[in-house]
Structures are given as C-alpha cells and as structure tokens.
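Retro notes (design track)

What went well: tokenization of the new backbones is finally stable.
What didn't: we kept losing track of which sequence belonged to which structure.
Fix going forward: every design gets posted as structure first, then sequence, in one message. First example under the new rule, 197 residues:
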C-alpha cells in the first residue's frame, strides 16, 4: 500500500507517499538499534481477529526470514478481539478498515478515532479538522495529503495492502455498476440473457 492510508479510487489517495518495501534499510535500522539480524530482539506480541488471520500466516515467516524477528499472534473472534484491543498491551495489532462513505475523512478521522486513537499529533488533528470545513475541493484534498504525509512519518499505522474485488461478468450483462465502496449494485445491473440457438 504505497499510496498512504486512503485507498486508490477514492478522493485523497496520494500515490507514492507510503513507505517503500526496503528490507536492506530495515536490517540497517535493526542493526543500528543493537539487533543485528534480529538477534536479541524481543518477541513481538501481536493481536488479530479471525477475518485477518490468513495475513498473519504470510507476515510471520516474512518478518522472521527478512529481519530475524519473531511474532507471537493472539487471534480472537471479533467480540473478544474488541475487548482485548481496548484493554490489552500488544506491540502490534493487525486490523482492516472498510469505508463507511467515500471520503478521506472516513479514514483519517473516523478510523483514527475508532481504531488507532492512542496516537496524537496536533498538526495532523489540525489539518484533518480544517479539511472537514474547507469548501474548496482542491484545498481540502491538499490538507488531507499533508495529514497522510504525517502518518507516513510518524507511522502510528502501517498500511500493508488495499483490498480488491475481482469480478467475472457474463457477456450478456451489459451494465454492472461498481464503486470504491461496493462491488455490486444489483438493482442497477442490466441483464439481457442471450437467446438459445
């Protein structure tokens, strides 16, 4: 996810601002911190809910192989996850976010308040607050881009992927509208079934 927290296709997406995949630099930073090849680095205690568990199976061996860092996951059903997330003291939490409405505000304000509310940056808060009130669309998006750049610098969250839906649509479906928020608008689809013969 190299375009910040706001996904592609949505206003406010900022291509190229995310942290690049740079395993060499990550190993250098670990070594500078006294953990060359991950030696002596404490086990990372991580929390996830069941819907994202398949990702833990990919991330864990990657971090072990590339960085020498071990991650111990606690994976819980949603209700238990929410309780643990609110009170637990984990080093890392694996979450996902789906927008409630197609606007960067839903990611940079609503999600921050609900999912990663412990991080504070006054400049970020000011930019997001101003963006909510600015009427000029370009100026509004400029403020959201600046706020996303702060996220990239401070890294209270690290977007890993953007969700995608892949659709196979039969040739006789002449209209099948989609959006960045929803993969199917059934009442607006147009189907003209071909005649047999």
């Amino acid at each position: 996810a190299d375009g910040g927290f706001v996904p592609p296709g949505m206003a406010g997406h900022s291509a190229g601002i995310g942290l690049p995949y740079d395993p060499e630099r990550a190993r250098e930073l670990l070594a500078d911190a006294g953990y060359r090849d991950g030696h002596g680095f404490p086990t990372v205690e991580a929390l996830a809910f069941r819907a994202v568990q398949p990702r833990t199976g990919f991330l864990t061996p990657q971090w072990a192989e590339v960085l020498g860092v071990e991650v111990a996951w606690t994976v819980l059903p949603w209700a238990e996850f929410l309780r643990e997330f609110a009170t637990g003291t984990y080093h890392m939490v694996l979450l996902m976010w789906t927008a409630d409405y197609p606007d960067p505000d839903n990611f940079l304000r609503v999600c921050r308040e609900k999912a990663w509310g412990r991080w504070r940056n006054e400049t970020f808060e000011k930019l997001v607050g101003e963006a909510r009130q600015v009427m000029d669309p370009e100026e509004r998006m400029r403020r959201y881009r600046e706020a996303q750049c702060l996220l990239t610098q401070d890294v209270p969250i690290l977007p890993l992927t953007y969700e995608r839906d892949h659709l196979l649509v039969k040739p006789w479906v002449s209209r099948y509208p989609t959006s960045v928020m929803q993969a199917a608008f059934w009442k607006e689809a147009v189907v003209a079934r071909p005649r047999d013969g």
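Added context from the reviewer: The longest strand covers residues 44-49.
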